[in-house]
Write a structure and sequence with these properties.
Number of helices: 11
Structural class: alpha+beta
Shape: elongated
Distance between the termini: 32 Å
């Protein structure tokens, strides 16, 4: 069986075509901060209470966002209000829809945006002309008593016509905790983050984005089935995909990482679409097992899987070693540094 080591090609692909550049990250951070200022100013204009806190969550906070050719990026920035502050002028509790509408009105109070904020079933969305959008889920903070008569807070999302118990920050903590635990042990936690991003990049190939499953479903699958391979991201990715495929052939059901609920149920169409695409990719990757497989063929196979020409365009080993000194300084298995003024990234 051939074992063509494509770790360097995969590392370069992750660096150049998957991970967001420092510039892109900075632009999204600036828009997030601008959105927070708009929300604060809009609520102040109508003399309504401010959220107790606004927190980034999801892939932005987990550092698993991936490049998108159409700039189709979203930042989740949850607004958490005290339940007592979500009331109308008659002191009646706001419905979930009314709570989202209040936040929406605050974001578009001055009418400066060509694309005004809109109310969605689970958030308020502000879209930017460049393709970015910021989603602001609206939460209320509910205080109850535990069995020891101590105050306990939980969070409820304004979802459709209901307040649904939820806290996306807990999902972020769940993921980042696992990465930290792996980094502290023998396995490379940053490899799991890279495999997560590479899998999301695969799932969001042009033409698939509207049909495939969500980023959180992919993240949960990678976490559940992650197969670390020291110094070999190409092997870790392939073995993790095999494990995910074997699981999804049995059921598309995916548990929520922190709640007693499901991210996806049996028969979920989007997970099924992802499963079928992944199964085809694994079949393509069997070409790597041929005894006479060459590096050129291995690169072409990865090109097919990711619908790119990136792998085949990489320099051969001797040229790569010469170029690596000027383009990329490898500091550890966890991080690499660009030569374009950017900082370190996972």
């Amino acid at each position: 069986m051939a074992d063509i080591n494509c770790d360097s090609e995969m590392t370069n692909f992750h660096r150049d075509r998957v991970t967001l550049s420092t510039k892109e990250q900075g632009e999204m951070r600036d828009r997030r901060n601008s959105g927070r200022t708009r929300l604060e100013n809009g609520l102040t204009q109508v003399d309504k209470p401010q959220p107790k806190e606004v927190r980034s969550q999801g892939s932005y906070q987990m550092r698993t966002m991936v490049q998108d050719a159409d700039n189709d990026y979203d930042i989740d920035d949850g607004a958490y209000f005290a339940a007592a502050d979500l009331k109308d002028d008659a002191d009646n509790a706001l419905t979930p829809l009314a709570a989202r509408q209040r936040v929406c009105d605050a974001l578009k109070w001055d009418g400066r945006f060509r694309q005004e904020a809109t109310v969605k079933p689970n958030c308020v969305r502000q879209t930017y002309a460049a393709g970015y959008h910021i989603d602001v889920p609206v939460y209320r903070i509910v205080t109850t008593k535990d069995e020891d008569d101590q105050d306990v807070e939980h969070f409820e999302l304004a979802s459709g016509d209901d307040w649904v118990r939820s806290d996306a920050r807990a999902v972020t903590r769940w993921y980042n905790k696992l990465v930290g635990e792996l980094n502290a042990g023998e396995a490379d936690g940053s490899q799991m983050r890279r495999v997560t991003k590479l899998t999301k990049k695969f799932a969001r190939r042009r033409g698939w984005k509207d049909d495939t499953t969500s980023g959180i479903c992919i993240t949960k699958l990678v976490v559940d089935e992650f197969k670390p391979r020291p110094d070999r991201d190409d092997q870790a990715l392939r073995e993790t995909w095999k494990a995910i495929d074997a699981r999804l052939q049995v059921s598309t059901e995916i548990d929520h990482p922190v709640l007693a609920s499901k991210l996806a149920k049996k028969g979920n169409a989007e997970v099924g679409f992802f499963r079928d695409c992944l199964h085809e990719a694994i079949a393509d990757l069997q070409a790597l097992d041929a005894k006479d497989c060459t590096r050129k063929q291995a690169r072409q196979t990865w090109d097919t899987v990711f619908d790119t020409t990136f792998f085949s365009s990489q320099p051969d080993n001797d040229e790569a070693k010469k170029a690596e000194g000027s383009v990329l300084e490898v500091t550890s298995i966890e991080t690499a540094r660009r030569n374009d003024g950017g900082g370190r990234f996972g």
